[in-house]
Amino acid sequence: MTGISHRKRIWGWFFFDWASQPYNTLLITFIFGPYIKELLSDGAAAQAAWGYTIGLAGAVIAVTAPFLGAMADKGGHRIGWVGAFSLLYVVGSAGAWFADPGGFNLLLILGLFGIGLIGMEFATIFTNSLLPDLGDANEIGGISGSGWAFGYVGGLIALVLMLFFFAESAEGTTLLGLAPAFGLDPVAREGTRFVGPFTALWYILFMIPFFLWVKEPANHATVPLRQAAKDAWPELRSTLRALPQTPSLFAFLGSSMLYRDALNGLYIFGGLYAAGVLGWGVIDTGIFGIISVIAAALFAWLGGMADNRFGPKPLIICCVLILTAICIAVIFVSRESVFGVAVAAESTLPDLVFYAMGASIGAAGGALQSASRTMMCRQSDPERMTQAFGLYALAGKATAFMAPLAIGVVTDITRSQQLGILPLIILFGLGLVLLVWVKPNGERAACPPSDLPASRG
User: Fold this and answer.
1) CA gap 378, 396 in Å, rounded
2) In whole angstroms, what separates CA 277 from the centre of its chain?
């Protein structure tokens, strides 16, 4: 590692966020999710199917993430794990190409999507665990925020490229009024389906700096995988049994489990909601996405600066309150009325209000995710950081099925996409309550630089 500067290692780490963000931006939220709604011709059915798929993938992640984290802490090979799960990301994302409106297998499409999602989430566990090696306690908030912001900028550029040159409207043209590039057939929706190969190729290209510049810390021992797996189980059992003895970490895992589940629900269903309730197409939803991602990039960076100055906890509380208010407001926006006031059928007011909400969701969500990553570093044992982020993934996915499934069930029962959002309000509220027991620096009275060792070369 002596030949790679500390600055390059940080930028290499940033590039994982840049490379992986299009899975969230293009596939989950703004392009492929709304396109599934078009394929099924039923917003409620698409919202339910999307919820069940992401919920099942989340259950797989929840069951296996802590064990994989414990294995990595015992045996090393974190960069190798990132590489292995990157293969799942690439294969799963590319599978969106098979969503041919002329004849598609919904189970195959959603199954491939779930495989890619699992790959992305697992790769994220191992990259997140490298954060404490990049700076000390008064630096990692800014590093985390800058990483999130850089990732959102990558997602924004990828989204703009898709909307300008590939994703077609019902009329067969892109946002610029052009036919899809490379001679892709708009009748077969090849421009929109290209979001899969595009996302896979984007990831392959921009993960090159990560693998060139990010290395295992020199003081991190490696052992054979079989031995690491054998040692991981008792280590993980011991950590889980000890959680009640670390009430701040326990409370934060519970709180983040709930509010991150709700935030993911907003991301996952925002595009579907607008498509079903406001009648938006892929292009409309894409514009909404551009606004949201710009706000997310800006406020992830600003949030990182605020994190360095005030710590992550006040930032988390503020963001959760904002997101709760947005969830409540969303219920009262439809094509027929805005906050109880009737509007004409041709009115653009519902669209403008939803654009503003999208910007607010992006801003609060970007800052919240960055601050939560920093808070996890402050709550964790530096010697068990990958396992800690495995538990963080468990916390994020143990109930990750809850929001999508609850939204799916409530939507199925009420046949209303607006009422289907109600579970998110409950999750945000419960997450706020648990934050009362979270100490800013965990069980430590302070969080000196030595607690979060930097690896500078």
Assistant:
1) 17
2) 24
